């Protein structure tokens, strides 16, 4: 057994597809029906793969806002570019899996593609699996709501990440 087997399980594309569905659903619910773009998904993935960030984010209020979280909790920003680059391949795999599974729809538009969460809930089998992954789901929902309300250029600047 690998020494990092628990981390490998949490970083699998199927689990991440469920987290990204929650992020996209929350974004749409809080963003007047808009969908998050690829940049939102990659930044979200980099934060959802960071245990300290998940713990801090899930404990915060929905109406706090991402910029407040970034200023109050410096751990969210530390190593952001490195985490973002490491998360990109799994994020792309998870989005492909989500589209193939029919839980996420990729939409073309101006610039980067956007991703729409299909349905109001994940399929029952995936919802049942959510119970054991509550902190990640809570963090994904908060990130979706926060991303919908914040200007992406400002978020990228505050996090110190580049694409």
Q: Strand order of the main beta sheet, please?
A: 1-2
User: Termini separation (Å)?
Assistant: 35 Å
Kindly provide the radius of gyration, computed on alpha-carbon positions and rounded to a whole number of angstroms.
Answer: 15 Å
Low-confidence stretches: none
- How confident overall, as mean pLDDT? 86
Q: What portion of the residues fall into strands of 2 or more residues?
A: under 5%
The helix/strand class is mainly alpha
Helix content: 55-70%
- Supply the number of helical segments: 9
Helix/strand order: HHHHHHEEHHH
Total strands? 2
Number of domains in the coordinates? 1
The dominant shape is: globular
Main sheet makeup: 2 strands, antiparallel
Q: Oligomeric state of the chains?
A: single chain
Brief write-up:
This protein is mainly α.
Brief descriptors of the model:
163 residues; mainly alpha; two-stranded antiparallel sheet; globular; 9 helices; 5% strand
Description of the molecule:
By secondary structure, the chain is mostly helical. It has one domain (5-159). Helices cover 64% and strands 5% of the residues. It is built from nine helices and two strands; from the N terminus they run H-H-H-H-H-H-E-E-H-H-H. It has helices spanning 5-10, 13-30, 38-48, 51-59, 66-72, 80-101, 124-130, 134-149, 152-159; strands at 104-107, 114-117. It has a two-stranded antiparallel sheet with strand order 1-2. Helix 2 (13-30) packs across helix 6 (80-101) and helix 2 crosses helix 8. The longest helix is centred in the middle third of the chain and has 22 residues, at 80-101. It is globular, with a radius of gyration of 15 Å. The model has no long low-confidence stretch (mean pLDDT 86).
